[in-house]
Recover the amino acids of this structure.
């Protein structure tokens, strides 16, 4: 199955495992995704957009896991194992967060997080 | 020296992440978010970890994006159109640019710039399974427990009535 997937990539002259970029390139991409997520967390007031921003930040973390594991002296498979855990936990977080958003909308008739005064401690 | 495929994939990922936060319609934002996740999956393929790429497409694009679209349909449209950002927007841009410039500047002087991968080293995907069972079995069970608890919690919250 994996070999079938790799056939179109070979046809596009995009060889798997033949990477030449230094690690800093993947780090910069992950850093850019983190900054986009931080901007979203600060600037947005819509609860669903805040969830978007959190998902983007988790995605940046997973890219870092996989990239640093690949660029280790003897490449470690542990990074991929931990990114599986991270993806699964991101799925649970999205499910609970979306349930909270739906419930808050039902109770307060609004998803602006500044208007959800009932959640204030 | 940088690969054109890498540049285009990373620009697509970051650009659609920005578009997901900035699109006026929330549904377009959800679609842009799933395209950004697809770009991250392409980055994983470039990083020689196809299993994670498949998992990313299955979980993120397949379930999380669809879940978000369902929730957007449950929330009425005029509610999320009316929210306007204020001073937080410039504050967010300043914070993001500061974070990016400082961390990028200091990372340029580290040894990350001179780290190249070993092209002959290939991953054996069966090692992921054996590691999950042998070394991280407790973490695996705790992850399953967290999934079960979150599903039960989400269902309980969805059943809760406003009294």
């Amino acid at each position: 199955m994996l070999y079938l997937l790799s056939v179109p990539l070979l046809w596009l002259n995009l060889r798997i495992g033949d990477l030449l970029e230094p690690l800093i390139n993947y780090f910069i991409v992950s850093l850019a995704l983190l900054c986009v997520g931080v901007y979203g967390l600060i600037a947005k007031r819509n609860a669903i957009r805040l969830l978007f921003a959190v998902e983007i930040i988790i995605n940046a973390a997973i890219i870092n896991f996989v990239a640093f594991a690949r660029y280790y002296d003897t490449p470690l498979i542990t990074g991929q194992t931990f990114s599986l855990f991270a993806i699964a936990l991101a799925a649970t977080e999205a499910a609970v967060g979306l349930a909270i958003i739906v419930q808050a909308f039902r109770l307060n008739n609004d998803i602006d997080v500044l208007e959800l005064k009932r959640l204030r401690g | 020296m940088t690969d054109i495929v890498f540049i285009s994939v990373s620009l697509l990922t970051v650009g659609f992440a920005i578009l997901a936060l900035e699109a006026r319609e929330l549904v377009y934002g959800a679609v842009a978010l799933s395209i950004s996740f697809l770009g991250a999956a392409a980055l994983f393929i470039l990083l020689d970890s196809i299993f994670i790429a498949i998992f990313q497409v299955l979980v993120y694009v397949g379930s999380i994006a669809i879940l978000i679209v369902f929730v957007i349909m449950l929330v009425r449209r005029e509610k999320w159109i009316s929210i306007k950002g204020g001073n937080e927007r410039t504050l967010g841009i300043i914070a993001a640019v500061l974070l990016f410039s400082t961390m990028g500047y200091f990372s340029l002087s580290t040894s990350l710039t001179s780290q190249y991968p070993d092209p002959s080293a290939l991953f054996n995907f069966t090692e992921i399974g054996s590691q999950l069972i042998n070394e991280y079995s407790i973490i695996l069970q705790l992850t399953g427990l967290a999934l079960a608890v979150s599903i039960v919690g989400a269902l309980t919250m969805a059943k809760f009535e406003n009294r």
Remarks:
- Residues 85-113 of chain B form one domain.
- Chain B has a mean pLDDT of 86.
